[in-house]
Design brief:
This is Sulfur reduction protein DsrE. It comes from Streptomyces alkaliphilus. By secondary structure, the protein is an alpha/beta fold. It has a single domain, classed as 3-Layer(aba) Sandwich (Hypothetical Protein Ychn, Chain: A). The chain has helices spanning 26-40, 63-70, 79-84, 101-108; strands at residues 13-18, 44-49, 74-78, 96-99, 113-117. It has a five-stranded parallel sheet with strand order 4-3-2-1-5. Helix 1 runs parallel beside helix 2 (63-70).
Length: 118
Amino acid sequence: MDARTAPPEGTASYFLIESKGNWAGPDAGAFLLDGVALAEAGHRVRVFLIEDGVFSAVGTGTPEVERLAAAGAEILVDDFSAAQRALDGTTLSPHVRLVGMDAAAAALTEEDCRGVWH
C-alpha cells in the first residue's frame, strides 16, 4: 500500500465482498450497511459485488449502494458476474465501477487490508 491509498493513522482498510443478492434476506443489506458504518467512521472501504451480489448495483434504487457512495466507499462490480447476468455499464448504478477479478486479488494482497466475504 502506498501513501496515496494508506488509511489515515488509527483507521483500517476493508475489502467487503458481497455475493448475495439484495433479495436474499436482511443479511445482504445489513452487510452493505456495515460497510456504510465503517466508511462513516473514517475507514477506507471498498465493496466488491460478485455473483448474485451484482444485482444490488442495478439502477439507482438500492439504498445501501446510495449510502455507501455517500459515505465515500468505493463500490466495485465483478465484470464476469455482471456479464453472466446480462448486466452492463448502462444498467448499473453510476456509483459503481466494473472491474475484473485481478482488482479483487490486488486489494486483498495489500498490506493491512481486512477482507470480509459474505
